[in-house]
Write a structure and sequence with these properties.
Elements: H1 2-17, H2 26-59, H3 69-77, H4 82-106, H5 114-139, H6 147-159, H7 164-187, H8 202-236, H9 245-252, H10 260-282
Helix pairs in contact: 2-3, 2-4, 2-10, 3-4, 4-5, 6-7, 7-8, 8-10, 9-10
């Protein structure tokens, strides 16, 4: 009888301290990684809101700062305590790189397939470069060129390589594919799977859904647009055809519908910034 009681108690205790329980420090480590991810989403949100605001100014006739990350950083630097805010963005992008890298290396479970790990790894590298570029800008040691100049310089260098025309064309196709995928996933509301929607009120969920759909579609349109220009540059073997985010957004203003397409995309980028803030609050990390 005693042995049976002991067995039952041991089984019950094992259920709370066995495979489902976390080792000492594991919960704290998970919370720390979640905090880094949330900081990263806030930094991303700030930049997208500023880029969208700059694009709106362009749509209404202001030929001011470039509507890209560089232009956004210039806007931050011009504010009171701008230097402090720049370094806060550096920390935020560094946190995003760390969080994405941890997902690529440490994530467990059947949902974390090789493709997802590679995607997170690529995002970690991307945000690592963003962090470095932002730090260079904040320190005043570099990062003065905008997305358009960088796109032309990269394209010109790539076209000089053996098979460079194919390489630039492939990059263009990848960017188009990424843009279309982002837009389609946004319209299909796939992003809701990653959010803790159960903790939202009905009204909040409606707002976050609208931010994700409109913002994701606009973001996808920009990626696809940059990809189209890269593909044109490859076909024509002309690096001057390549465009960064700023020139791509300005091109939207010269469509048959006039500046209103740029207005729509610019508002969408601002909304995506808002969605990034919502992700910092409700995303499962």
């Amino acid at each position: 009888m005693a042995s049976s009681h002991t067995h039952k108690w041991g089984s019950r205790n094992g259920s709370s301290t066995g495979g489902r329980s976390r080792a000492p420090g594991e919960a704290e480590g998970k919370q720390a990684l979640a905090a880094t991810g949330r900081a990263g989403f806030v930094a991303r949100g700030v930049v997208y809101v500023l880029v969208g605001a700059l694009a709106l100014r362009i749509a209404f006739g202001d030929s001011g700062p470039e509507a890209d990350r560089q232009g956004a950083l210039q806007q931050v630097a011009a504010q009171p305590f701008g230097k402090v805010m720049l370094w806060m963005l550096v920390v935020g992008f560094g946190c995003m790189a760390i969080w994405r890298g941890s997902r690529a290396l440490l994530a467990k479970g059947p949902k974390n397939k090789v493709g997802s790990r590679l995607l997170d790894g690529g995002r970690a590298v991307f945000y690592g470069f963003v962090c470095w570029g932002t730090a260079s800008f904040a320190a005043g040691t570099g990062g003065s060129s905008g997305s358009d100049a960088k796109s032309r310089d990269w394209t010109a260098s790539a076209l000089k390589l053996p098979g460079g025309q194919v390489l630039v064309g492939l990059v263009g196709c990848v960017l188009i594919g990424v843009g279309v995928t982002l837009a389609v996933r946004a319209v299909m509301r796939r992003f809701l799977r990653r959010l803790e929607t159960g903790r939202m009120s009905r009204r909040v969920r409606q707002v976050v859904t609208a931010l994700g759909v409109a913002g994701g579609a606009a973001r996808g349109a920009v990626f696809a647009g940059v990809g189209v220009f890269a593909l044109v540059a490859a076909v024509r073997f002309d690096p001057h055809q390549a465009k960064g985010m700023d020139a791509t957004l300005r091109t939207f203003a010269h469509t048959p519908v006039g500046p209103w397409l740029l207005v729509a995309v610019a508002v969408g980028l601002v909304l995506f910034g808002g969605f990034s803030f919502a992700s910092a609050r409700w995303r499962r990390l």
